[in-house]
Design brief:
Number of helices: 14
Order of helices and strands: EHEHHHEEHEEHEEHEEEEHHEHHHHH
Structural class: alpha+beta
Strand order of the largest sheet: 5-6-11-8-10-9
Number of strands: 13
Distance between the termini: 50 Å
Largest sheet: 6 strands, mixed, barrel
Strand content: 15-25%
Radius of gyration: 36 Å
Length: 454
């Protein structure tokens, strides 16, 4: 006689789905009627096949779709709970498999969040694709980067045909006294056009006007939202107060909004008007940086062509600062126009994609390891599957239960991985590596959660 399964004792029937319990109870009754031994013996196919399956009521035709749907969800929920109970009974396997998945998911989620914040998220300005940075190259002197001089700035702003406006800026650390302890803060010198180019709006007060940027006028300052909160407690009456910077008194005229972030600088607390004097402008000291906004419909290539036309005019209109006009021509100055995003991000994009690819391979290895663990575990459950099949469980029901158990394990590993990713991103932001731009845009956003869930 060929045997197929092992009959369990009644107290353990709760471990199995209802169709198994139903047929086991019938088999036990059959054993009692035929005076068979106590449970714990092998059951032949002939004995098991004499037990009828539990009859299923046939729903009315009008309610069949709703009844079938309810039955499906109830059965799925029951099998899911059964799978979770099995995982709880095997904490060692569950911990190893979930931890392996969590580490792989956390690493890839962190890298995706960094790439999304640094490379994929647009710059937080109106029409960011129209914003460009301007600089030069000097092939004659072997210099790949030469920024902007005051003479070229005035020439480009007055003679160009491709930009709505051009702005100049430069960063400088300053000392602030009179509030508490003296402190060094990051300051930025800007021309009046910079804030309109970046579409900045004041949170309190106003921003710089053409009058503020004119030489000889009363010195003014605009503070960042963070500095306003930190030093003035968010008091609107701070506008109009005097701030002592480098020993001089400056009037606070406005506060920038919380979401404003100055490009190319991770922190910028104070902004001062440049107050350039056109009569003092020269060509030669390429120490400043310039921003511009393209006119709608124009390209970077068209802008570079126009600046090549304008550049010689700056040598004619303004005196040389450190080189003679002939020496400036020997430098072979050439204007360079590229997107502001490229200027902000730099060349780190290639490195980030390579690291992301490497971390993705680590995730694949982690998934392969978990798959091997599941395979070994499945081989150890052959007797259980045979018994369930002998007691009437269909192949689809067995497969569904195994899939739901795997789904529960993956969900647990995913949640643990998201928690680890959140902690990793907080550590990254606290470390603030100097080579990683746009740290303020890096975080566990909805897109990152969707990526982790996928």
């Amino acid at each position: 006689m060929r045997t197929l399964g092992w009959v369990k004792n009644q107290p353990e029937w709760g471990k199995y789905p209802s169709e198994v319990v139903h047929r086991e109870s019938k088999v036990m009754q059959l054993f009692t009627i035929r005076e068979c031994p106590t449970p714990g013996h092998w059951v032949s196919r002939d004995i098991v096949n004499t037990v009828p399956k539990r009859p299923q009521p046939r729903p009315e035709v009008s309610m069949r779709f709703l009844s079938n749907g309810t039955w499906f969800f109830r059965r799925t929920w029951r099998d899911l709970r059964f799978g979770v109970r099995r995982l709880r009974r095997e904490p060692g396997f569950t911990f190893v498999a979930a931890s392996t998945l969590a580490l792989g998911i956390a690493a890839t989620t962190v890298m995706f969040s960094v790439i999304h914040g640094v490379l994929l998220t647009p710059l937080p300005y109106t029409e960011p694709s129209q914003l460009v940075a301007l600089w030069h190259t000097g092939a004659g002197a072997g210099r790949e980067v030469m920024h902007m001089s005051t003479g070229t700035y005035f020439t480009y702003r007055e003679e160009n045909r491709v930009f709505t406006d051009v702005g100049l800026w430069d960063d400088a650390e300053v000392t602030v006294t009179g509030l508490a302890e003296p402190e060094r803060v990051q300051g930025v010198l800007v021309t009046q056009a910079i804030f309109p180019l970046l579409d900045a709006r004041p949170a309190v007060g106003r921003l710089f006007t053409a009058e503020d940027d004119r030489p000889g006028t009363a010195p003014t300052v605009v503070v960042s939202h963070g500095y306003w909160q930190r030093r003035f407690g968010g008091d609107p009456k701070a506008v109009g107060r005097a701030l002592t910077v480098n020993g001089g008194q400056l009037e606070i005229v406005g506060v920038l909004p919380r979401e404003f972030h100055f490009p190319s600088l991770e922190t910028a607390d104070l902004f001062f008007p440049f107050r350039l004097n056109r009569s003092d402008a020269t060509v030669g000291r390429f120490n400043y940086q310039a921003l511009a906004r393209l006119r709608p419909g124009l390209t970077v290539e068209q802008a570079e062509a126009d600046l090549r036309r304008v550049l010689p005019l700056s040598i004619e209109k303004f005196p040389a600062a450190t080189w003679t006009p002939d020496r400036l021509r020997e430098l072979a100055l050439a204007p360079v126009v590229h997107s502001l995003r490229r200027d902000v991000v730099g060349t780190i994009g290639t490195t980030l994609w390579l690291v992301f690819g490497a971390v993705g391979i680590v995730l694949l290895i982690a998934c392969a390891n978990v798959a091997n663990l599941m395979l070994v575990r499945g081989l150890s459950r052959q007797r259980e599957v045979v018994l369930r099949t002998a007691l009437g469980a269909g192949r689809a029901a067995v497969i569904r239960e195994i899939l739901l158990e795997s789904l529960a394990l993956g969900a647990f590993g995913g949640l643990l991985g998201v928690g680890l990713a959140f902690g990793g991103l907080e550590i990254l932001r606290a470390a603030a590596p100097a080579t990683l731009p746009r740290l303020d845009q890096i975080g566990l956003h909805a897109v990152s959660l969707l990526f982790a869930g996928g």
